[in-house]
Design brief:
Layout (H helix, E strand, L loop, with lengths): L2 H8 L7 H4 E5 L2 H6 L4 E2 L6 E5 L3 H13 L8 E2 L22 E3 L15 H8 L3 E3 L11 E4 L3
Parallel strand pairs: 2-4
Antiparallel strand pairs: 1-3, 5-7, 6-7
Helix pairs in contact: 4-5
């Protein structure tokens, strides 16, 4: 989805608009256990403040990783919700609405060649995400954003 389409559906990102689209997702215990090894800004979260539309797809992506034996490839959890513009741009980031997640940031820096395996990326794409490693203008290998809602 484009930023304009997101704004049309959800409004401008702001604390005042959060009740319309944000939720506190309490992650199931089995996901917390499967990803207990994950580090990052914080350890793998027990709760994620995110857009309500991302909850089911994100849970599916994480379960896909477990199902294909790739849980260990998720090394760092680097954030979901942060109101801010896209790096180096003036338009808002999809993180501003809690519609994106960054993972394994240290190995997948903005503009660098992404190092996530194709199988890892497929787990997120199959769950309904776009991958920043496929962006044409500037690769963002850590970034997954909800394709539509």
């Amino acid at each position: 989805m484009t930023i304009n389409e997101i704004v049309a559906k959800l409004g401008q990102p702001s604390p005042a608009n959060e009740p319309k689209y944000m939720a506190l997702w309490v992650l199931p215990a089995d996901l917390q256990k499967a990803f207990a090894h994950v580090k990052g800004i914080s350890a793998f979260p027990k709760k994620v403040y995110c857009n309500k539309h991302i909850v089911a797809p994100l849970e599916k992506a994480l379960r896909n990783l477990i199902a294909v034996g790739l849980a260990s490839e998720l090394k760092t959890w680097d954030g979901v919700y942060h109101i801010r513009p896209q790096r180096g741009a003036t338009v808002q980031s999809t993180h501003s609405w809690g519609l994106a997640v960054d993972v394994n940031a240290a190995e997948n820096a903005l503009g660098a060649t992404p190092k996530l395996s194709k199988e890892f990326v497929k787990c997120f794409i199959d769950a309904g995400f776009l991958w920043g490693g496929n962006f044409k203008n500037r690769k963002d290998g850590m970034h997954f954003e909800l394709a539509k809602f």
